[in-house]
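re the bet — no i am not wrong, look at it urself. input seq straight from the record:
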Amino acid sequence: MSEIKAAVVKELRERTGAGMMDCKRALKETAGDMDAAVEWLRKKGAAAAERRVGKAAREGVVESYIHHSHKVGVLVELNCETDFVARTEQFQELARDLAMHIAASDPIAVSREDVPDDIVERERSIFLAQVKEQGKPEHVAEKIVEGKLRKFFEEHTLLEQKYVRNPEVTVADRITDTQAQLGENIAVGQFVRFKVGE
């Protein structure tokens, strides 16, 4: 496909939020196939996002979410590198989505590294007691406990949880997608979840 029509480039830009030149290149690389071009941009953007992970994310927003029952509320701090990106609709939509996810999924920490040691040790001892109760040998028991701990982190830490609006991906994947679109490092600073009676 020698000539890419401007309308097709515009449509790809609207679908992905990528720059015009990137959209044009993606369409050329994929012979005008829209879906393949979206995938090409996602791969390119994800690779670029990986390179930015060490960059300081000191700008951002604090987003709130109150469930319609008024029984659950969330505040989440979402950080990025520049104020310009913090004001974009995609970044603010991500912050809203994360606040809603936290309200629904009740994570205990942002990442597994943030889970307090006493909670990890408590869970480990519970899992170990369960496995010993089943009479498993020591070397097998340790592997089972590690597997159960991994599952615990996947269910209870924000970044590893299945994203409520698309359980095919994790919250970390959802953040990486937005990083790829915006070209900046994005990180969850902190969050707090309130529930009436707790």
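see?? The mean pLDDT is 86. told u. also Helices lie at 6-16, 20-29, 34-51, 83-86, 89-105, 117-133, 138-156, 171-182. so pay up
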